[in-house]
Fold each of these.
Amino acid sequence: MKKSEKSEISKEFARLRNFGFDVYNFNDYRPMYGGKRDFVDHVLVSKKYHIYIEVKIGEDKLTDGQKRLAEKISHLSTTNPSIHYRLVRTLKEAKSLVNLLLAKKL
């Protein structure tokens, strides 16, 4: 796992605070930190969007619990267009997502 790339991705999402987003970072390298096993790494909230983001770098894979959560959030998004789930694998993808959010084109 590339901690530095995950850190850069977290910093990219944190930039959204300057634009009125609430940014919650649940990314932690310790297993079962705070009882949040299988929860997403980031939650971004604005007046228009609620985005749940899982970050997987390199060979990292989703756990079964993360897959179930992704399915549930994705299902919610079918009836509520402001709710989104995203799997981010690179800093480039994170920057692209931030740009879409700032342009209100998600």
Note: The longest helix spans residues 64-79.
Amino acid sequence: MGKFISLFAGVGGFDKGLEQAGHECVAQVEWDKNAAGVLKHRWPNVPLFCDVSKVSADDLPDADFITYGFPCQDLSVAGKREGLDGKRSGLFYEACRIIKQLAERAIRRGGAGGGRFIAIAENVKGLLSSGDGYDFARCIRELHNIGASEVGWSVLDSQFFGVAQRRKRVFLVADFGGESTSEILAISEGVSGHPPPSREAGKGTAGDASESVGEGGAFSDGTQTSSSLTTRCHNQFMPDKGNFCAVIQAQEPSVVSWNGDITPKASEDVSVTLRSQQGGEGVGVAFTASDRSNKAAWEGDISGTINCQMNSESSNLQMGVRENLTVRRLTPIECERLQGFPDNWTSEKMELILEGNEWKATGKVVKQADGPRYKAMGNAVTVNVAEWIGKQIGKVLNK
């Protein structure tokens, strides 16, 4: 397997997934101090830098590939759409500067990839339409300008990799010194714009995500979503309200989704995409009234935080579910599960000080507040997807 560097690392979604696939993280870059604290807590011996614009290849060790989930705020359809000219998403060019330096060095020295270097970007689907599509073309052109011999991309949806969340993200792969992008992304009918076939919901997680992609989105073992949150569902139409909502019937608590307000907008048996600005309030869990007496025992000592009653303020929330259900927002642990992280991955962080452009640990681990935990999950790369990509990269590097 290979060694990799993680730019815009967040709390390590890419890093965790790639390590589960057998790769080794040798350096990280993350500006947000709360997220960086999680990284240093989880990877105490990995060099961790702050400002990507101040990092050069001289600061970084040798690696076989690099990941960069560059900021999406200027590309998202929910933002001002300043595109690659925006201050945040424009950091793509800083990533390209570092990639060029590392690729040239990797090709000179050889290595696990046989004299090649691979760069993997992740961003929102809005990247494809930002600037009427010109921004995406600029990304591809820039990667070729810095020496990529091949560039490929695909939109991958987290729900087909074993988590209960609809999360479509663009993955852009550049190969320096080789032509393996189609092999890494396993471009097939399932990931090139064809919708997955209809299926019945089940329990469990994906057995082999590569099989699901190759077959157009159906899991090889017939399962569809994470067992931690969903089982079976039926669609419910409320004629008097004009609302269509999927209500999940489960022995466990059920996911009910809404987009940052009190009107349910769920469809299918998975949650809506987690977003950092929702603060955890955009996705909820529904219980039957009798379940409330158990204080959500399935989640240990975490009880519900929103008790939905029929009144003028919350009646809109009730209408799309059922009258005998109460709803609360998801807990940070549940958001971690929707992104494929282990429970409490973000509950603690290492206190940090900044020396030059490198984060240094003080040695003191402190509790992380819920706000940064929700934000981190909204920004994170789904671990399951990163692990699948890591396995694909491993096949290339091992040749």
Note: Residues 188-250, 292-323 have pLDDT under 50 and may be disordered.
Amino acid sequence: MSKDTLLRWCLAASSVLITLLLLEAGLRVYAHMRQRASEVAWQNLGAPRLPPVQRGNVTLPQLIRPSANPKVIYELIPNQSVQFLDQQVTVSALGFRGPAVAPVKPRDTKRIVGLGDSLMFGWGVGDTEYYLALIAERLANQAPRRPVEVINSAVPGYNTVMEVETLKERLLQFMPDVVIIEYVDNDLDLPNFLDRPPSPVSVDRLFLHDWIAARLAGRVWDPVHRLAIAPRDPFRERRFEGNPDRVPTQYRALVGIEAYRTAMAELQALGVAQHFAVVVFSRAQFPDDIAAVCNALGLPMVSAWPALERYLTEHGGGRYEESALALSANDPHPSALGHRLMADVLFDYLEQTGLP
């Protein structure tokens, strides 16, 4: 190879390297600016926020922000209309999925408030497909002259303590007539799937690599991860943790059966004081310890599992996770069909009991 050819190759390689370094530096500057803007917004949760991402699939960290309430930890960012898991997700100005509801309840209007996590939120299904939206539609069609408004306050990852705290802080003003609290098997646990923002001066990662990977996956790259629950802790290796001794000290009152018992007793007392009915709903069967808490408090339990089992039997048997009731074999969240069957069960219960 001649010296001229070698020189041209070196110049070309240098140009490519300089271009990559400039791109990496630009992404780091962008990340720093985004993180600073978000930190300012988080310090004043009422301030205008960065405009929500409108194109491509967003990730869960892009849907949430820290809460000023340490028992709530995080909440949905208000005023969003995005694609999440290839489905339309609309978050109202209230910070809840679904249509906004006026704080002042109109005369002769009944209200249902849902407390839950990813299942009630409608993980993997569209705005009109999760079971609370289906119940709202049925109630509107059945008795248009007797309006019923439904508020879905569920947020992916919430446990029972976080849900009841959300009711106390943000939902009592809406004067609910019925509160439906959903039980799932991680309701005694602390969520641990949120991350801290990557440092713009970090040397152990390439921002350009992250940006390219996000683009190839059809996601919007966002360097602003919202929150770290337990940084640099072995607990972070697990998605949820139910042992109070293994979670950070400030979150121990949110975890375990005693935390569940305390939260449910508080919910039952609020129902008496604020004159709303409480219904405990579950896709699955209720574990003995959960059923014991609810029975002791006189709270009715409604399980959709018999209806789901009946569907499985009528369609050849098999496991729930491998059926049309689940999103996929790797994701047991209910599909649109699963939500329809759960809506059937819950709607029948509401109708039979005269609620709301």
Note: Residues 46 and 339 are 34 Å apart (CA to CA).
Amino acid sequence: MTKLTSNQIEHIAKLAKVDVSKKETGKFQDQLSKVLDYIDELNEVDTENTVPTSQTTGLENIKRSDEIDINNCLSQEDALSGTESTHNNYFKVPAVFEENK
């Protein structure tokens, strides 16, 4: 059985930028050690005659051309007709980011 040390757990936590308490270190020692044991077990499986796959459903991405239907578009004037607050033919909205004054 692979047993990770507390130093290794703390190093992994540091790499993941996760704060880990001493109590959690012991808990993660057991859990991550079991994960590594399972990976070792999987590495023992003979996969020499197994074809690599990225997915098993046979589905493929369906793409369509990006076409604009000019009969189903708003003119700029129509798009802006629902607001009174415009500037240079754009919607005018309150600032999202402001400098501290």
Note: The first helix runs from residue 6 to 15.
